[in-house]
Structures are given as structure tokens and as C-alpha cells.
């Protein structure tokens, strides 16, 4: 909440008392611990209303339908379960705003007037359950912002006036020197003044391979220092760091996105006033113009309201939605609400984050090129793994994994005089021979710029394919090149093709990686468009641009850096297994098994659900139309009205259950 002008927390809470708002200053969230309300207390009104309905049915079977005790139980259920509904419904009626809540309010009052308490209570309880689900998803959205706030540490080791001390991030000033040890998370944005390390920036930029950092390089809060000790000069206050910006972007994107309107709500805007006008005309016109009986035609008018009561309409959507969401859950897809299921069926464009979504998010060895045969492949790989085992380099794990997969022993190999060559590589002596592993620039120096042209060509080719190439050799000769890259998921290409076959016009890959790597991967997986070197705010802007162009846009991602874009898209889809909590909570749909192949199935299921909702609405309206035509000869009785409504309700329920048969092939 942004407050303009002077006020107190007490006044703000007083102003928000109708929603029981709790306000905490943004820079004072340390001491605030949210009280967890027990489930029963949180949804007490829904549970109580449901119990009253059950007691009402029991009473009905014991004392009969019109018994005063049964009526009182149903009345209590309507008042308790529908209190918030009626509050909005009456307000809307006074303002002549017609939506589902207005129609529900009028229909329930109509049902009460003509003694149809059972029907009124059932409609109210269904509505209360859907409201509770909506509130639950809003709570989840708030949690996503809270979990973002926990990414960067709350304090840091600072050197001031020759003394080192732990200081809270709020008290750190621009210009302070922050000391970050290996394995620690970085608390503030800054510039490296002393030291060299590899920093895992995946949380902020989405780059899968840790980035080498040395003097004068920028560092972001919330990233992980993996190797060496760094002394960093703080360049931003805690509220201006990149992670703080991401939090604000998520908050703004969640607030800016107009709540998607469910299909039934859009429909109710026109249906509600129409049915109310028809009911009023049926009650008034015959007595006024044709001297007919007021009693008969007011009864007919109320019967029209019962026929018009959206029971089948109200049920048609939740039954289809709940069935589809249940089916999706069984197939490892978590959909956070009916609206998102409907929106997923209308998608025109889908944007993908690269790292951890189209790719696996973990570096692996992709190429091992040897240039001479004196040292066998297995022997050479065991030497490389033995050296990397002693290194703290982030890519070392990929080489060790390769050796383990091929069952090549390396831990027992004796390495003498092992040392790290800052920013360039490592060296060590094995069997009285000195070996170097490092970047092409290291070997250029060792060989006085006389790197063999074949090696240079291979390095260039590997780099063009988006791979990190490391040279292995002695001071005067190159023995091999080992290339490491973030591996593309085997399924990515197939998924993109399936989406294109389903009629998704545009698939875009968004990444913080360099353009060369991005284009190589984009071309391989078959997306229609590639956007590289993006920061979180750039991804957000791009999603907004896509929305203005295509209307319905999904974003698929797995990291903190994707959270703003996930929040701003029409449907945010998070990768579940590898996805961070923030991505999962900001997203509207989560692919729980970290399985991208579930995406085309989600789109297919959503479209099927949307079709069934439309069929249900058409069908329930058709039955109502037939019943309304019985008004003309005056044949519409209340039991026909109820039968028409209950019959429609039953049929739309059975139709909705067909969604259980949609399989993930």
C-alpha cells in the first residue's frame, strides 16, 4: 500500500476495518509474525452454513418439507453462508450494477418469498465455497511476496573504521565494505573491490552457469558466493537493491493485473437484468392490461425468477472446473482456480524462461575432444576430474559427474602443488607432469599466442553452440577441450511443436543469457522468437507488450527472476520440481513433476473445460427458455419450474464430469 500524506497506522487500520486489514510499515517486517488462523475459524461461515443445510435436509425427512423447523434451518444457512454475498448484492442493486451476486441475491429472495428455502440454501452454499477458494488463492499470492523478502540475508559482515561487525541491512550505508565468505549469500548490491570468485546469480538473472567475478564487477543481493572471499563496496541502500526492485515489480504486477473475469460473470452482467425484467413483466402486465388475477401472475412472476435462478448456471461452471482441476491434479498439474483454467484455454502466445524450463538448469559435459593419443581417454578424464575435485569452480561438479557416470576413479589420484590461477583456471602435478585446465585466454598466455588454429576453431564452434569451453593441456601443448553447457530438456522440442500444432501462434524464449547461447538454444527447441540478456524488469516489460498485442499470454518459468513476469501474464505457469517457492506461489498453474510435456495437455484440458462450460450454459438456458414459454398459456407451475431447474442442474453436472475422461496422451 502506498500512502500519500500524513497518517498513522491506527487510522489506516480503522479505515480498513471492514476488511479486518492489518497494516505493517514496509521497513518494519522483522518483528511482525502473522497470526495463523485455524482452518475451521477461517472458513467458519461456510462450514456452519453447510451444517445447517445438512440439518435442514434431516429435518425435512423427519417433519416434512414445509415444517417451520426445516425452514428456519435453511434460513439460517442462507443468512450465514450468504452474508457477504447479500452485502455486495444489495449494494449492486442500489447502483444498478448487475453481476452474478446481484442475480443470486434476487433469486434467493425470490426463492424465499415462494417458500423454496432448500433451493435458496444450496445456491448460497455453492457460492460461499467458490468465494472461500478465491480467498485462499489471494493468501497464496501474498505469501509469494513474503518468501521473496527472505531471499537476501537480513544482516551482513561490514568493515567500518578498521573493525569488522555484523550489521542489519537497514543500517548499512552506501560506501561500506561488505565481506562475503565462500558459500554465503550476498546481502547487498555492490562492486567487488578485492577478491575473485564465481557467483551463482540464477535467482536474479536466471543464468544457470555461475558467473566469474573479479575487481570492479557488479554483485547483486540474494546471489550466492560459491568460491573465494570477496570484499564488496556497497553501492545501494537496502530498499534500492535489485531484489527489492523485483519484490516491487511482483507487487505492482499482481496489483496491476485486472482480476480475470470468469465467463459466467461476464454472461451474468446481461442475463441478470434481463431475467429480472422478464419476471417483473410476467407479474405486472397480465393483471394491468388484461384484468387477470394478481395472485396468479405474481406467483407466475416468482416462478419465472426460480426458473431464471442460476442454480444450473452456478453449478455448471464449478462442476466443470472442479472436475478439470481434479483431473489436472491427478496428472501432476496444480491449477489455482477456475479462472486460470478458463484463461489457459484462450492462450494466443506463450513465453518461456530458458534456464530450468526449456533447459535442465544444471551444467553437464557435452563434448570431450582429444588432440593426441598418448594419454588414453579414460586416463585423461580421471586426471581432469582429480584436478577439478580440488577446485571450487562451479563447473567442476559437471566434470566429476561425467567421470562418475563412466565409472572412472579419480579421488585416489595424487595431485601435487595444486593451485588456482585467478579468473583463468587451475594447475597441478600428476605423475610428475604439470597439467593446466582453463580458459582459452590462459592457454594463449602459456603458448605465447601460438594456440593451434584447429583448437581455436573448435573453441569458436563450441561457443557458438552456447557452450563453455575449457582447454586441458601442458604448458606447451593442448591435450583436449572439455565443453560444459546447460543441457536442453529432451522434451522441449516436442512440447514447442505440440503447442504450435494446438494453434498457439507465438512461442518466445526469454533469458538473461548472452545472445549467442540464447539463439543456439532457441533454434534447437524451435521457438518462434528469442529475447536475450534480459533482467527481471525487461521480462516484465516484454510480457506487458505481448499482452497488449495478443491479449491472452502465458509465462512459463521457474525462478525468482521470473516472478514479476509470471505475475503480469494472463496465466503464470511455474515448473514445480525445480521451481522456487516464489515462482510456485506467484504462478497460477504449477507443473508439479517439473515436466514440460504437461503444458500442451493443460491447454487441451482448458479448452475442453471451456467448451463444456459453454455447452452447460447453453443447455441450462435452453431448458429455462422452454419453461418460460409455458408462461404464455399460464401453464408454468412452481413444480415445473423447480423440475426444469433441478433437471438442468443434474444434466450439467453429468456433462461436467466428462472432463474426467480427458487423458494426457
TrEMBL record:
What is one Pfam family matched by this protein?
Answer: Hydrolase
Could you list this entry's UniProt keywords, alphabetically sorted. Answer: ATP-binding, Cadmium, Cell membrane, Ion transport, Membrane, Metal-binding, Nucleotide-binding, Phosphoprotein, Translocase, Transmembrane, Transmembrane helix, Transport
Any idea where the P-type ATPase A domain is? 152-251
Which catalysed reactions does the entry list for this protein?
A: Cd(2+)(in) + ATP + H2O = Cd(2+)(out) + ADP + phosphate + H(+)
Give the membrane topology.
Multi-pass membrane protein
Give the main localization category: membrane
Q: List residues traversing the bilayer.
A: 43-62, 68-86, 270-290, 302-326, 612-632
Report if keyword Mitochondrion is assigned: no
- Name where it's found: Cell membrane
GO MF:
ATP binding; ATP hydrolysis activity; metal ion binding; P-type cadmium transporter activity
One Gene Ontology cellular component annotation?
plasma membrane
Q: Does the keyword Transmembrane apply?
A: yes
In short, the EC number is 7.2.2.21
Name the NCBIfam families on file. ATPase-IB1_Cu, ATPase-IB2_Cd, ATPase-IB_hvy, ATPase_P-type
Give the protein family: Belongs to the cation transport ATPase (P-type) (TC 3.A.3) family. Type IB subfamily.
Q: What is this protein called?
A: Cd(2+)-exporting ATPase
Its source organism is Halalkalibacter wakoensis JCM 9140
Amino acid at each position: 500500500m502506498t500512502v500519500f500524506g500524513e497518517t498513522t497506522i491506527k487510522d489506516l487500520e480503522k479505515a480498513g476495518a471492514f476488511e479486518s486489514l492489518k497494516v505493517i510499515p514496509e521497513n518494519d517486517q522483522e518483528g511482525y509474525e502473522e497470526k495463523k488462523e485455524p482452518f475451521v475459524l477461517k472458513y467458519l461461515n461456510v462450514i456452519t452454513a453447510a451444517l445447517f443445510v445438512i440439518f435442514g435436509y434431516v429435518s425435512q425427512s423427519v417433519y416434512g418439507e414445509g415444517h417451520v423447523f426445516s425452514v428456519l434451518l435453511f434460513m439460517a444457512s442462507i443468512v450465514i453462508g450468504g452474508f457477504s454475498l447479500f452485502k455486495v448484492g444489495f449494494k449492486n442493486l442500489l447502483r444498478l450494477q448487475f453481476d452474478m451476486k446481484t442475480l443470486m441475491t434476487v433469486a434467493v429472495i425470490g426463492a424465499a418469498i415462494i417458500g423454496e428455502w432448500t433451493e435458496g440454501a444450496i445456491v448460497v452454499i455453492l457460492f460461499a465455497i467458490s468465494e472461500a477458494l478465491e480467498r485462499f488463492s489471494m493468501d497464496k499470492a501474498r505469501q509469494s511476496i513474503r518468501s521473496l523478502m527472505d531471499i537476501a540475508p537480513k544482516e551482513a559482515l561490514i568493515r567500518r573504521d578498521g573493525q569488522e561487525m555484523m550489521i542489519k541491512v537497514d543500517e548499512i550505508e552506501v560506501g561500506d565494505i561488505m565481506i562475503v565468505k565462500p558459500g554465503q549469500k550476498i546481502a547487498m548490491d555492490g562492486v567487488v573491490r578485492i577478491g575473485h570468485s564465481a557467483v551463482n546469480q540464477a535467482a536474479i538473472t536466471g543464468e544457470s552457469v555461475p558467473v566469474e567475478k573479479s575487481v570492479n564487477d557488479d554483485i547483486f543481493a540474494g546471489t550466492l558466493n560459491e568460491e573465494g572471499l570477496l570484499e564488496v563496496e556497497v553501492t545501494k541502500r537496502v530498499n534500492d537493491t535489485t531484489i527489492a526492485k523485483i519484490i516491487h515489480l511482483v507487487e505492482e504486477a499482481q496489483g496491476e493485473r485486472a482480476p480475470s473475469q470468469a465467463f459466467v460473470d461476464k454472461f451474468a452482467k446481461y442475463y441478470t437484468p434481463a431475467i429480472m425484467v422478464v419476471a417483473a413483466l410476467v407479474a405486472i402486465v397480465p393483471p394491468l392490461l388484461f384484468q387477470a388475477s394478481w395472485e396468479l401472475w405474481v406467483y407466475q412472476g416468482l416462478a419465472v425468477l426460480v426458473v431464471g435462478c442460476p442454480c444450473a448456471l452456478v453449478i455448471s461452471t464449478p462442476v466443470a472446473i472442479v472436475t478439470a482441476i481434479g483431473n489436472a491434479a491427478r496428472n501432476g498439474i496444480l491449477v489455482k482456480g477456475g479462472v486460470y483454467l478458463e484463461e489457459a484455454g484462450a492462450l494466443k502466445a506463450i513465453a518461456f524462461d530458458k534456464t530450468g524450463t526449456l533447459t535442465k538448469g544444471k551444467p553437464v559435459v557435452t563434448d570431450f575432444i582429444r588432440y593426441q593419443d598418448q594419454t588414453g581417454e579414460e586416463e585423461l578424464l580421471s586426471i581432469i576430474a582429480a584436478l577439478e575435485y580440488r577446485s571450487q569452480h562451479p563447473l567442476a561438479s559437471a566434470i566429476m559427474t561425467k567421470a562418475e557416470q563412466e565409472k572412472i576413479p579419480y579421488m585416489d589420484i595424487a595431485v601435487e602443488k595444486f593451485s588456482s590461477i585467478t579468473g583463468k583456471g587451475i594447475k597441478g602435478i600428476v605423475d610428475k607432469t604439470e597439467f593446466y585446465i582453463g580458459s582459452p585466454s590462459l592457454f594463449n598466455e602459456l603458448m605465447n599466442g601460438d594456440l593451434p588454429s584447429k583448437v581455436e576453431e573448435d573453441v569458436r564452434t563450441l561457443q557458438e553452440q552456447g557452450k563453455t569451453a575449457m582447454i586441458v593441456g601442458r604448458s606447451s601443448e593442448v591435450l583436449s577441450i572439455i565443453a560444459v553447457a546447460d543441457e536442453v530438456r529432451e522434451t522441449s522440442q516436442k512440447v514447442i511443436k505440440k503447442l504450435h500444432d494446438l494453434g498457439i501462434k507465438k512461442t518466445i524464449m526469454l533469458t538473461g543469457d548472452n545472445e549467442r547461447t540464447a539463439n543456439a538454444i532457441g533454434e534447437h527447441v524451435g521457438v518462434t522468437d528469442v529475447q536475450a540478456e534480459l533482467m527481471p524488469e525487461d521480462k516484465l516489460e516484454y510480457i506487458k507488450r505481448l499482452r497488449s498485442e495478443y491479449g491472452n499470454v502465458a509465462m512459463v518459468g521457474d525462478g525468482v527472476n521470473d516472478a514479476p513476469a509470471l505475475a503480469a501474464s494472463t496465466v503464470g505457469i511455474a515448473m514445480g520440481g525445480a521451481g522456487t517457492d516464489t515462482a510456485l506461489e506467484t504462478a497460477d498453474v504449477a507443473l508439479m513433476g517439473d515436466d514440460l510435456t504437461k503444458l500442451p495437455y493443460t491447454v487441451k484440458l482448458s479448452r475442453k473445460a471451456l467448451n463444456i462450460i459453454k455447452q452447460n450454459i447453453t443447455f441450462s438456458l435452453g431448458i429455462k427458455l422452454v419453461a418460460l414459454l409455458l408462461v404464455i398459456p399460464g401453464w408454468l407451475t412452481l413444480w415445473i419450474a423447480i423440475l426444469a431447474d433441478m433437471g438442468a442442474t443434474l444434466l450439467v453436472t453429468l456433462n461436467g464430469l466428462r472432463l474426467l475422461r480427458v487423458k494426457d496422451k
